[in-house]
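#structure-requests
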Amino acid sequence: MNINQLILKSSITFTGESGTVTDILEWVKDQRSSIKVNIRKKPLHLLKNWNYADSLSHSSGGFFSVEGVRVKSKSNNVSDWDQPIINQAEIGILGIIAKEINGILYFLMQTKIEPGNINYVQISPTIQATLSNFKQLHGGKKPAYVDYFDALDDSIVILDQLQSEHASRFIRKRNRNIVVLINDDISVENGFKWLTLGQINKLMQIDNLVNMDSRSIISCLTINDASNESSQGLLEEYKNVPKNYINNLIFNSMFFSNNALHSFEKVLSFITKMKCDTYFEIEKIPLKNIRDWNIKEDKIYRNDKKHFQIIGLDIQISNREVSSWNQPIIEATQKGLCGLICKEFNGTLHFLVQGKIECGNFDLIEFGPTVQTLLDNDRVANPYADYIFNSKKHKVISDVNQSEEGGRFYHEENQNIIILADQDFNNIFPESHIWMTLNQLKSFLVFNNFINIQLRSLISMLHIA
């Protein structure tokens, strides 16, 4: 069985080595009750091993820093502004070990606690770590299974890509999303289990359970075009799977490249033109000089108290490589909305995505969801947000609250919602938006820095059974 068929078969398998989805939920519950956690807010100027001056940085010179930036733009819809931003020059590794067991592809996932997680324990990749963690700058233990991602000679690499993180909060931050297929029999440590893609996807339908890093990696897994003769086994594998109308639409949009409204070349030209028409000048400035923000000893926040603030945490987590530490973290002041509208054209499901401009993007613009905003901010001004909120319940494909990465964001949550539009949905939309099939979105995911993290999260939630 080839890798495409293994991925598809794993996607439609819901009971496996770790039991049922219910069994996995019991495992998560047990992990939550067995790990000691104590997280308290702490004034920034009192954080141990952090220097608070022109920037907020770790005394080791590693991990990350909080800096000030001044953004100047000539784009018509974006004004100039100042803000604090995280500078994490190190490329993080988000890695999953995969293994075929009895003809089914499994993924080694862990229950990991990050200090900013809403519910402490979330289902995470085999490893998520920065170079500073790898080098053990924190003075703690080496992350489990890290050696499988250090030397890849004996493994088959299913996925290996650099993908962006939140570009409104990070400056040019990227993570290495990697999945390696092994043949070795490895010991499964406490807090880890083998899960199928089908199980992971079911768990994604539960609020704040599968973490952002896992969603990012899963979204990047692609299957070759099923219209190719060599992939006919995919159709045989899928034809007897119980499914509904929506599942079939998603399957066809994912695995067939024909019937797209726009060619791949036209979509590429769309985003290239947007990049050519967009200008940003980003200047690094001392934190004390950022306009419209209050730089206090205890925290950093906007004058209008919108968007986010920088706070400090004092952290104790019993099962981490280091059991206690201090750090700054971003706290959102509002819940966010990431909404994706889809519609059937030519018998194929298309998704309305936007070219999203954000100051921290590696290349100015990435494809984002139809709507990406604060929940209370643009609802009246944004017609797509209004359409999503007023949609009939039977038109909702998925509606889940998802946490953002808990290592840098404190209790940050976005409503992730996918809506199937009526056929009379207005097809006249701004030049910043374009219809794409799931196959096209997956094709762009093969490359670095085309699909932003908010859209990747939504893509990961689409299921075919």
